[in-house]
Specification:
- Helix 1 runs antiparallel to helix 2.
- The chain has 98 residues and is an alpha+beta fold.
- It has 2 helices and 3 strands, in the order H-E-E-E-H.
- The relative contact order is 0.19.
- It has one domain: 2-Layer Sandwich (Ybab, Chain: A), CATH 3.30.1310.10.
């Protein structure tokens, strides 16, 4: 039982390390062939959005492109989080990991 607790604590520490590493990264998405680019931080907040000035005359299109770029960046974040944290397998350790 003691060994199981030690393994659970080690797994928890590794998961926390992966979460902390994820928070230091940024993820980029773009749309419209690159006319809009969005960067999202590892915590899911938007860092910046860059828009090519040539498309600014069509507000509806720009709005759609911004949404698409942000969603793409968030999707990149989610994929990396799943890849990093998914390696822990979703094991149910009865609340041992908090």
């Amino acid at each position: 039982m003691n060994q199981l607790m030690q393994q659970a604590m080690q797994m928890q520490a590794e998961m926390q390390q992966h979460r902390e590493e994820l928070l230091t990264k940024t993820f980029e998405g773009s749309s419209g062939g690159g006319v809009v680019t969005a960067v999202v931080r590892g915590d899911g907040t938007v860092d910046r959005v860059t828009i090519d000035p040539e498309v600014l005359d069509d507000a509806e299109m720009v709005g759609d492109l911004v949404v698409a770029a942000v969603n793409q960046a968030i999707d990149a974040l989610n994929r990396e989080a799943a890849a990093e944290l998914g390696s822990f397998g979703g094991m149910d350790l009865g609340g041992l990991l908090g």
